[in-house]
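User: Can you help me understand a structure? I only have the sequence.
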Amino acid sequence: MTLPQIALISLAIGLLIGIALSLVVVWAYRARARMDEETSTTVPEGVTDVLGSMDDAACVIDTSGLVLAASLAAARFGIQVGATLDNPELRQLVRGVRATGGTATESLRITRGGLSLDPRLVSARASVISPRMTLLIIRDVTEQERLDQMRRDFVANTSHELKTPVGAVTLLAEAIESAADDPAQVRIFAARISAEASRLGQLTGRIMSLSRLQADDGLGDVRPVAIDEVIAASIEAHVVQADSAGVDLARGGDRDVWVRGDAQILIEAIGNLVANAIVYSPKGSRVGIGVRADGDIVEIAVSDQGIGIAEADRERIFERFYRADEARSRRTGGTGLGLSIVKHSIQRHGGEVLLWSRPGRGSTFTVRLPRIDSPVSGDVKKEKKRKKKREKAVKAAAARVRNGETA
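Assistant: Let's start by predicting it. Here is the structure, written out as C-alpha coordinates:
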Protein backbone atom coordinates (compact mmCIF):
# COMPACT_ATOMS: atom_id res chain seq x y z
CA MET A 1 0.00 0.00 0.00
CA THR A 2 1.50 3.27 -1.01
CA LEU A 3 1.95 6.21 1.28
CA PRO A 4 -0.76 8.36 -0.39
CA GLN A 5 -3.27 5.55 0.04
CA ILE A 6 -2.41 5.23 3.71
CA ALA A 7 -2.85 8.98 4.11
CA LEU A 8 -6.27 8.95 2.43
CA ILE A 9 -7.45 6.03 4.56
CA SER A 10 -6.23 7.77 7.71
CA LEU A 11 -7.98 10.99 6.67
CA ALA A 12 -11.26 9.12 6.05
CA ILE A 13 -11.03 7.35 9.40
CA GLY A 14 -10.31 10.64 11.14
CA LEU A 15 -13.24 12.29 9.39
CA LEU A 16 -15.58 9.50 10.47
CA ILE A 17 -14.32 9.70 14.03
CA GLY A 18 -14.78 13.49 13.97
CA ILE A 19 -18.33 13.21 12.68
CA ALA A 20 -19.12 10.55 15.29
CA LEU A 21 -17.71 12.72 18.05
CA SER A 22 -19.69 15.73 16.77
CA LEU A 23 -22.89 13.68 16.74
CA VAL A 24 -22.18 12.50 20.27
CA VAL A 25 -21.59 16.09 21.43
CA VAL A 26 -24.79 17.35 19.72
CA TRP A 27 -26.78 14.50 21.23
CA ALA A 28 -25.32 15.23 24.63
CA TYR A 29 -26.21 18.92 24.37
CA ARG A 30 -29.74 18.10 23.21
CA ALA A 31 -30.17 15.54 25.97
CA ARG A 32 -28.98 18.10 28.49
CA ALA A 33 -31.29 20.75 27.08
CA ARG A 34 -34.16 18.29 27.21
CA MET A 35 -33.29 17.42 30.77
CA ASP A 36 -33.06 21.09 31.71
CA GLU A 37 -36.42 21.75 30.07
CA GLU A 38 -38.04 18.86 31.91
CA THR A 39 -36.62 19.93 35.27
CA SER A 40 -36.73 23.70 34.79
CA THR A 41 -39.20 25.82 36.75
CA THR A 42 -38.36 29.03 34.93
CA VAL A 43 -41.40 30.59 33.33
CA PRO A 44 -40.92 30.91 29.54
CA GLU A 45 -39.98 34.35 28.28
CA GLY A 46 -42.96 36.58 27.61
CA VAL A 47 -45.47 34.52 29.61
CA THR A 48 -45.15 36.80 32.65
CA ASP A 49 -45.81 39.87 30.50
CA VAL A 50 -48.87 38.23 28.96
CA LEU A 51 -50.22 37.31 32.41
CA GLY A 52 -49.72 40.88 33.58
CA SER A 53 -51.94 42.22 30.80
CA MET A 54 -54.80 39.73 31.28
CA ASP A 55 -58.15 40.72 32.82
CA ASP A 56 -58.99 37.11 33.67
CA ALA A 57 -57.45 35.19 36.53
CA ALA A 58 -54.53 33.14 35.18
CA CYS A 59 -51.46 31.42 36.57
CA VAL A 60 -48.58 29.06 35.71
CA ILE A 61 -48.27 26.00 37.96
CA ASP A 62 -45.50 23.42 38.28
CA THR A 63 -45.91 19.69 38.90
CA SER A 64 -46.05 20.15 42.66
CA GLY A 65 -48.92 22.64 42.45
CA LEU A 66 -46.71 25.65 43.18
CA VAL A 67 -47.79 28.90 41.50
CA LEU A 68 -44.81 30.26 39.52
CA ALA A 69 -46.53 33.30 37.93
CA ALA A 70 -49.98 34.82 38.09
CA SER A 71 -52.09 37.67 36.74
CA LEU A 72 -53.37 40.44 39.00
CA ALA A 73 -56.93 39.12 38.79
CA ALA A 74 -55.82 35.73 40.17
CA ALA A 75 -55.64 37.24 43.65
CA ARG A 76 -59.47 37.39 43.68
CA PHE A 77 -59.45 33.59 43.89
CA GLY A 78 -56.69 33.44 46.51
CA ILE A 79 -53.99 32.48 43.97
CA GLN A 80 -50.60 33.98 44.90
CA VAL A 81 -47.12 33.52 43.42
CA GLY A 82 -45.03 31.23 45.65
CA ALA A 83 -48.08 29.54 47.18
CA THR A 84 -49.68 26.26 46.24
CA LEU A 85 -52.97 25.99 44.39
CA ASP A 86 -55.47 25.22 47.15
CA ASN A 87 -58.69 24.56 45.27
CA PRO A 88 -59.13 20.78 44.84
CA GLU A 89 -61.26 21.07 41.68
CA LEU A 90 -58.65 23.20 39.93
CA ARG A 91 -55.85 20.88 41.08
CA GLN A 92 -57.74 17.90 39.67
CA LEU A 93 -58.18 19.71 36.34
CA VAL A 94 -54.46 20.49 36.16
CA ARG A 95 -53.50 16.89 37.04
CA GLY A 96 -55.81 15.51 34.38
CA VAL A 97 -54.35 17.77 31.68
CA ARG A 98 -50.80 16.95 32.70
CA ALA A 99 -51.55 13.23 32.48
CA THR A 100 -53.15 13.38 29.05
CA GLY A 101 -51.44 16.44 27.57
CA GLY A 102 -53.15 19.09 25.48
CA THR A 103 -55.92 21.33 26.81
CA ALA A 104 -59.09 20.86 28.84
CA THR A 105 -61.93 23.22 29.88
CA GLU A 106 -64.45 22.71 32.69
CA SER A 107 -67.18 24.75 34.35
CA LEU A 108 -66.69 24.81 38.11
CA ARG A 109 -68.25 26.57 41.08
CA ILE A 110 -65.48 27.70 43.37
CA THR A 111 -65.07 30.16 46.22
CA ARG A 112 -63.41 33.50 45.70
CA GLY A 113 -60.71 34.87 47.97
CA GLY A 114 -61.22 32.08 50.47
CA LEU A 115 -64.79 33.19 51.26
CA SER A 116 -67.07 30.16 51.49
CA LEU A 117 -70.11 32.49 51.23
CA ASP A 118 -69.05 33.82 47.84
CA PRO A 119 -69.25 30.92 45.35
CA ARG A 120 -68.50 31.85 41.76
CA LEU A 121 -69.24 30.00 38.55
CA VAL A 122 -66.07 29.91 36.46
CA SER A 123 -64.88 28.47 33.17
CA ALA A 124 -61.44 26.99 33.92
CA ARG A 125 -59.06 26.14 31.05
CA ALA A 126 -55.78 24.26 31.63
CA SER A 127 -53.05 23.87 28.98
CA VAL A 128 -49.65 22.18 29.20
CA ILE A 129 -46.89 24.62 28.18
CA SER A 130 -43.88 22.49 29.24
CA PRO A 131 -43.25 19.11 30.86
CA ARG A 132 -43.22 20.73 34.31
CA MET A 133 -45.57 23.71 33.82
CA THR A 134 -49.27 24.16 33.15
CA LEU A 135 -51.13 27.35 32.28
CA LEU A 136 -54.46 27.76 34.09
CA ILE A 137 -56.97 30.45 33.00
CA ILE A 138 -60.06 31.12 35.15
CA ARG A 139 -62.89 33.18 33.67
CA ASP A 140 -65.64 34.31 36.05
CA VAL A 141 -69.02 33.79 34.34
CA THR A 142 -71.21 34.31 37.42
CA GLU A 143 -72.66 37.57 36.12
CA GLN A 144 -73.44 35.99 32.75
CA GLU A 145 -75.22 33.14 34.53
CA ARG A 146 -77.22 35.64 36.59
CA LEU A 147 -78.27 37.58 33.49
CA ASP A 148 -79.28 34.38 31.71
CA GLN A 149 -81.36 33.38 34.74
CA MET A 150 -83.00 36.82 34.83
CA ARG A 151 -83.83 36.53 31.14
CA ARG A 152 -85.39 33.10 31.64
CA ASP A 153 -87.35 34.32 34.67
CA PHE A 154 -88.56 37.36 32.75
CA VAL A 155 -89.88 35.23 29.90
CA ALA A 156 -91.54 32.78 32.32
CA ASN A 157 -93.10 35.55 34.44
CA THR A 158 -94.31 37.46 31.40
CA SER A 159 -95.97 34.36 29.99
CA HIS A 160 -97.64 33.70 33.33
CA GLU A 161 -98.84 37.28 33.75
CA LEU A 162 -100.24 37.42 30.22
CA LYS A 163 -102.13 34.17 30.62
CA THR A 164 -104.22 35.56 33.50
CA PRO A 165 -106.06 38.36 31.62
CA VAL A 166 -106.19 36.35 28.40
CA GLY A 167 -107.82 33.45 30.25
CA ALA A 168 -110.25 35.81 31.98
CA VAL A 169 -111.29 37.37 28.66
CA THR A 170 -111.90 33.90 27.21
CA LEU A 171 -114.08 32.83 30.13
CA LEU A 172 -116.02 36.10 30.12
CA ALA A 173 -116.64 35.80 26.39
CA GLU A 174 -118.09 32.32 26.98
CA ALA A 175 -120.21 33.73 29.82
CA ILE A 176 -121.59 36.44 27.54
CA GLU A 177 -122.50 33.82 24.97
CA SER A 178 -124.32 31.82 27.63
CA ALA A 179 -126.14 34.89 28.95
CA ALA A 180 -127.08 36.31 25.56
CA ASP A 181 -130.75 36.57 26.59
CA ASP A 182 -129.93 38.50 29.81
CA PRO A 183 -128.94 42.11 28.92
CA ALA A 184 -128.00 42.98 32.51
CA GLN A 185 -125.53 40.10 32.78
CA VAL A 186 -124.14 40.87 29.33
CA ARG A 187 -123.39 44.44 30.43
CA ILE A 188 -121.66 43.19 33.59
CA PHE A 189 -119.53 40.68 31.69
CA ALA A 190 -118.73 43.25 29.00
CA ALA A 191 -117.51 45.71 31.65
CA ARG A 192 -115.26 43.03 33.13
CA ILE A 193 -113.90 42.17 29.68
CA SER A 194 -113.13 45.84 29.18
CA ALA A 195 -111.27 45.92 32.51
CA GLU A 196 -109.25 42.80 31.67
CA ALA A 197 -108.43 44.15 28.20
CA SER A 198 -107.27 47.41 29.77
CA ARG A 199 -105.09 45.45 32.18
CA LEU A 200 -103.67 43.40 29.31
CA GLY A 201 -102.91 46.55 27.32
CA GLN A 202 -101.28 48.15 30.35
CA LEU A 203 -99.13 45.07 30.97
CA THR A 204 -97.90 44.83 27.38
CA GLY A 205 -97.28 48.57 27.30
CA ARG A 206 -95.16 48.43 30.43
CA ILE A 207 -93.21 45.45 29.15
CA MET A 208 -92.42 47.45 26.03
CA SER A 209 -91.44 50.48 28.13
CA LEU A 210 -89.11 48.36 30.24
CA SER A 211 -87.56 46.76 27.15
CA ARG A 212 -87.04 50.19 25.60
CA LEU A 213 -85.34 51.48 28.76
CA GLN A 214 -82.96 48.52 28.75
CA ALA A 215 -82.08 49.02 25.08
CA ASP A 216 -79.33 51.35 23.84
CA ASP A 217 -81.92 53.82 22.56
CA GLY A 218 -83.79 54.02 25.86
CA LEU A 219 -83.64 57.82 26.08
CA GLY A 220 -85.11 59.76 23.20
CA ASP A 221 -85.66 63.51 23.63
CA VAL A 222 -82.77 64.41 25.97
CA ARG A 223 -82.83 68.05 27.01
CA PRO A 224 -82.98 70.23 30.13
CA VAL A 225 -86.04 69.22 32.15
CA ALA A 226 -87.68 71.29 34.88
CA ILE A 227 -88.45 69.18 37.93
CA ASP A 228 -91.39 71.50 38.62
CA GLU A 229 -92.98 70.34 35.37
CA VAL A 230 -92.30 66.68 36.16
CA ILE A 231 -93.88 66.95 39.61
CA ALA A 232 -96.86 68.95 38.30
CA ALA A 233 -97.57 66.44 35.52
CA SER A 234 -97.19 63.46 37.88
CA ILE A 235 -99.62 64.96 40.40
CA GLU A 236 -102.10 66.05 37.72
CA ALA A 237 -102.16 62.55 36.23
CA HIS A 238 -103.15 60.99 39.59
CA VAL A 239 -105.51 63.57 41.09
CA VAL A 240 -108.58 61.50 40.18
CA GLN A 241 -107.04 58.35 41.63
CA ALA A 242 -106.13 60.18 44.85
CA ASP A 243 -109.65 61.67 45.18
CA SER A 244 -111.23 58.25 44.69
CA ALA A 245 -108.96 56.76 47.36
CA GLY A 246 -109.51 59.67 49.77
CA VAL A 247 -105.81 60.53 49.80
CA ASP A 248 -104.39 64.07 49.76
CA LEU A 249 -101.44 64.93 47.49
CA ALA A 250 -99.03 67.54 48.86
CA ARG A 251 -96.08 69.09 47.00
CA GLY A 252 -93.24 70.84 48.79
CA GLY A 253 -89.55 71.64 48.71
CA ASP A 254 -87.31 73.57 46.34
CA ARG A 255 -88.44 75.14 43.07
CA ASP A 256 -86.78 75.93 39.76
CA VAL A 257 -84.57 72.82 39.81
CA TRP A 258 -83.40 71.32 36.53
CA VAL A 259 -81.97 68.02 35.31
CA ARG A 260 -81.02 66.69 31.89
CA GLY A 261 -83.02 63.84 30.46
CA ASP A 262 -86.22 62.68 28.81
CA ALA A 263 -89.24 64.46 30.34
CA GLN A 264 -91.74 61.74 29.39
CA ILE A 265 -89.69 58.97 31.01
CA LEU A 266 -89.15 61.01 34.20
CA ILE A 267 -92.87 61.85 34.44
CA GLU A 268 -93.75 58.17 34.09
CA ALA A 269 -91.19 57.20 36.75
CA ILE A 270 -92.33 59.74 39.33
CA GLY A 271 -95.96 59.02 38.39
CA ASN A 272 -95.43 55.34 39.18
CA LEU A 273 -94.12 56.23 42.64
CA VAL A 274 -97.10 58.54 43.27
CA ALA A 275 -99.56 55.87 42.05
CA ASN A 276 -98.03 53.22 44.32
CA ALA A 277 -98.10 55.60 47.28
CA ILE A 278 -101.82 56.23 46.72
CA VAL A 279 -102.63 52.53 46.39
CA TYR A 280 -100.87 51.58 49.61
CA SER A 281 -102.13 54.55 51.68
CA PRO A 282 -105.20 54.40 53.93
CA LYS A 283 -108.16 56.68 53.38
CA GLY A 284 -107.67 60.13 54.88
CA SER A 285 -103.86 59.98 54.77
CA ARG A 286 -101.44 62.12 52.78
CA VAL A 287 -98.89 61.43 50.06
CA GLY A 288 -96.06 63.93 49.98
CA ILE A 289 -93.86 64.78 47.00
CA GLY A 290 -90.83 66.80 48.06
CA VAL A 291 -87.87 68.22 46.11
CA ARG A 292 -84.49 69.12 47.57
CA ALA A 293 -81.50 70.56 45.71
CA ASP A 294 -78.29 69.43 47.38
CA GLY A 295 -75.30 70.76 45.45
CA ASP A 296 -75.01 68.82 42.21
CA ILE A 297 -77.79 66.39 43.20
CA VAL A 298 -81.58 66.71 43.04
CA GLU A 299 -83.59 64.56 45.45
CA ILE A 300 -87.27 63.82 44.75
CA ALA A 301 -88.93 62.05 47.67
CA VAL A 302 -92.37 60.42 47.48
CA SER A 303 -93.65 59.52 50.94
CA ASP A 304 -96.80 57.76 52.08
CA GLN A 305 -98.38 56.82 55.40
CA GLY A 306 -99.32 53.34 54.27
CA ILE A 307 -98.63 49.77 55.29
CA GLY A 308 -94.88 49.95 54.72
CA ILE A 309 -92.61 47.30 53.26
CA ALA A 310 -91.19 44.39 55.25
CA GLU A 311 -87.42 44.16 55.46
CA ALA A 312 -87.44 40.81 53.64
CA ASP A 313 -89.13 42.44 50.63
CA ARG A 314 -86.95 45.55 50.34
CA GLU A 315 -84.15 43.83 48.45
CA ARG A 316 -86.54 42.46 45.81
CA ILE A 317 -89.06 45.28 45.54
CA PHE A 318 -87.51 46.58 42.28
CA GLU A 319 -87.56 43.17 40.56
CA ARG A 320 -89.91 42.63 37.62
CA PHE A 321 -93.33 41.25 38.60
CA TYR A 322 -92.40 41.15 42.30
CA ARG A 323 -95.22 42.24 44.60
CA ALA A 324 -94.79 42.76 48.34
CA ASP A 325 -98.58 42.49 48.79
CA GLU A 326 -99.84 40.09 46.14
CA ALA A 327 -103.50 40.32 47.10
CA ARG A 328 -103.64 44.12 47.13
CA SER A 329 -101.72 44.40 43.88
CA ARG A 330 -104.06 41.96 42.13
CA ARG A 331 -107.09 43.80 43.49
CA THR A 332 -105.89 47.17 42.22
CA GLY A 333 -104.80 45.81 38.84
CA GLY A 334 -101.07 46.30 39.39
CA THR A 335 -98.62 44.73 36.96
CA GLY A 336 -95.61 44.44 39.26
CA LEU A 337 -93.51 46.35 36.70
CA GLY A 338 -93.87 49.91 37.98
CA LEU A 339 -90.92 49.98 40.37
CA SER A 340 -88.72 48.09 37.91
CA ILE A 341 -89.50 50.80 35.34
CA VAL A 342 -88.69 53.46 37.95
CA LYS A 343 -85.31 51.90 38.70
CA HIS A 344 -84.26 51.56 35.07
CA SER A 345 -85.59 55.02 34.18
CA ILE A 346 -83.56 56.70 36.89
CA GLN A 347 -80.46 54.63 36.16
CA ARG A 348 -80.61 55.69 32.50
CA HIS A 349 -80.51 59.28 33.76
CA GLY A 350 -77.38 58.61 35.83
CA GLY A 351 -79.27 58.49 39.13
CA GLU A 352 -80.40 56.07 41.80
CA VAL A 353 -83.50 55.19 43.82
CA LEU A 354 -83.32 54.81 47.61
CA LEU A 355 -85.96 53.27 49.85
CA TRP A 356 -86.84 53.89 53.48
CA SER A 357 -89.74 51.95 54.92
CA ARG A 358 -91.11 50.70 58.19
CA PRO A 359 -94.15 48.39 58.46
CA GLY A 360 -97.14 50.30 59.74
CA ARG A 361 -95.51 53.72 59.32
CA GLY A 362 -95.20 54.07 55.56
CA SER A 363 -92.49 54.26 52.90
CA THR A 364 -90.36 56.90 51.24
CA PHE A 365 -88.84 56.43 47.79
CA THR A 366 -86.10 58.97 47.09
CA VAL A 367 -84.94 59.58 43.52
CA ARG A 368 -81.48 61.14 43.20
CA LEU A 369 -80.54 62.74 39.87
CA PRO A 370 -77.60 64.87 38.65
CA ARG A 371 -78.56 68.54 38.78
CA ILE A 372 -77.83 71.10 36.06
CA ASP A 373 -78.00 74.89 36.02
CA SER A 374 -81.19 76.53 34.87
CA PRO A 375 -80.93 77.05 31.09
CA VAL A 376 -80.68 80.69 29.99
CA SER A 377 -81.60 81.73 26.43
CA GLY A 378 -80.65 84.98 24.79
CA ASP A 379 -83.45 84.71 22.30
CA VAL A 380 -86.82 85.27 24.03
CA LYS A 381 -88.84 83.94 21.10
CA LYS A 382 -86.91 80.68 21.03
CA GLU A 383 -87.33 80.33 24.76
CA LYS A 384 -91.09 80.81 24.50
CA LYS A 385 -91.33 78.25 21.71
CA ARG A 386 -89.33 75.77 23.75
CA LYS A 387 -91.57 76.42 26.75
CA LYS A 388 -94.71 75.81 24.72
CA LYS A 389 -93.22 72.63 23.31
CA ARG A 390 -92.31 71.46 26.82
CA GLU A 391 -95.79 72.21 28.12
CA LYS A 392 -97.34 70.32 25.24
CA ALA A 393 -95.06 67.32 25.84
CA VAL A 394 -95.81 67.39 29.58
CA LYS A 395 -99.57 67.49 28.98
CA ALA A 396 -99.34 64.63 26.50
CA ALA A 397 -97.24 62.56 28.90
CA ALA A 398 -99.63 63.35 31.76
CA ALA A 399 -102.56 62.21 29.63
CA ARG A 400 -100.79 58.94 28.83
CA VAL A 401 -100.05 58.34 32.49
CA ARG A 402 -103.60 59.30 33.47
CA ASN A 403 -105.02 56.65 31.14
CA GLY A 404 -102.88 53.93 32.72
CA GLU A 405 -103.38 51.91 35.91
CA THR A 406 -101.24 51.73 39.07
CA ALA A 407 -97.98 49.76 39.14
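Now, to help you interpret it: The mean pLDDT is 79. DSSP finds twelve helices and twelve strands in the chain. Let me know which part you'd like to focus on.
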